[in-house]
Write a structure and sequence with these properties.
Layout lengths: L2 E2 L6 E2 L15 E5 L3 H10 L3 E5 L9 E5 L7 E5 L1
Parallel strand pairs: 3-6
Antiparallel strand pairs: 1-2, 2-3, 4-5, 5-6
């Protein structure tokens, strides 16, 4: 299911166990946000690094991965 973050428009959807998801390191958290670009700006203000996953040809259907040394082993992504 989709879980709504209290007090915001952000939603959380745990990934199902499927063949295409086997490449992701456990645990993986995918957050839905209306503007992944806003997430990128906010993350950089807090000294997090970001990586764009699945964006190609100017399409906005990819994910933003959040990277930080304190989060090693945890896959955190934001998508629209």
């Amino acid at each position: 299911g989709v879980y709504h973050w209290p007090g915001s428009s952000m939603c959380i959807r745990p990934l199902p166990t499927a063949a295409q998801d086997q490449r992701l390191p456990p645990p993986s958290l995918i957050f839905h946000h209306e503007s992944p670009d806003e997430v990128t700006l906010a993350a950089k203000k807090e000294t997090f690094r970001t990586a764009r996953i699945g964006f190609s040809g100017g399409m906005n259907d990819g994910q933003i991965m959040i990277l930080h040394q304190d989060l090693l082993g945890l896959d955190i992504r934001y998508c629209r």
